[in-house]
């Protein structure tokens, strides 16, 4: 296996080495992949639940796919239901609502779909939007648009990390840390 440079982080009492991947010429990011890392997911969910405890909310919303384990663990820790906005429409999703967004990791436009079955769960509720990493804010914006389409009020946005050149740009996001961008 090829040696890849990493960035060391401490989050929720744990240490991790995050691999650096190029996402544009001369620009690398530290990739947080929580899939399969149950220790990290549980620790981060507990820490986020504590930070969100003073805010009244009814439901947690996340986008498919890497942040699903975090949303689930946070839902369990907080005793709240959660909704997953899907990236691919399936016929069983019925009259799904959709918005377009763009993620830094895919670089391509993508759709987010709110399954028909989740309209009532999310509609007219107080929602917390959850992502693993907030970098451009595009995924959060798409999640917010879908929540608002069914009358939900977004009361908080949360993530394990925010990312970018200006940590202050994400001061409103409840997070456990900030990741820099790596330029050649």
CATH fold field value: Rossmann fold
Mean pLDDT: 93
% residues in beta strands: 35-45%
Annotation field: number of helices: 4
Tally of strands: 12
Using only CA atoms, what is the Rg?
16 Å
User: Based on CA inertia axes, which overall geometry fits?
Assistant: globular
Largest sheet: 6 strands, parallel
User: Under the CATH scheme, which class?
Assistant: Alpha Beta
Sheet/helix structural class: alpha/beta
Helix content: 10-25%
Whole-number count of domains: 1
Low-confidence segments, given as residue ranges, are none
The termini sit apart by 23 Å
User: SSE order in H/E notation?
Assistant: EEEHEHEEEHEHEEEE
In the CATH hierarchy, the architecture is 3-Layer(aba) Sandwich
């Amino acid at each position: 296996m090829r040696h890849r440079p990493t960035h060391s982080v401490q989050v929720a009492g744990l240490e991790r080495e995050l691999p650096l991947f190029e996402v544009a010429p001369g620009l690398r990011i530290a990739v947080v992949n929580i899939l399969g890392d149950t220790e990290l997911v549980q620790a981060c969910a507990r820490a986020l639940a504590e930070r969100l405890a003073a805010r009244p909310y009814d439901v947690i919303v996340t986008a498919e796919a890497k942040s699903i384990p975090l949303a689930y663990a946070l839902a369990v820790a907080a005793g709240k239901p959660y909704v997953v906005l899907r990236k691919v429409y399936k016929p069983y999703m019925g009259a799904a609502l959709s918005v377009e967004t763009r993620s830094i990791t895919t670089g391509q436009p993508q759709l987010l779909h709110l399954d028909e079955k989740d309209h009532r769960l999310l509609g007219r509720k107080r929602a917390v939007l959850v992502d693993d990493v907030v970098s451009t804010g595009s995924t959060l914006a798409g999640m917010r648009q879908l929540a608002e389409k069914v009358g939900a009020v977004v009361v908080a946005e949360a993530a394990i990390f925010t990312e970018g050149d200006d940590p202050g740009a994400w001061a409103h996001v409840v997070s456990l840390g900030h990741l820099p961008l790596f330029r050649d």
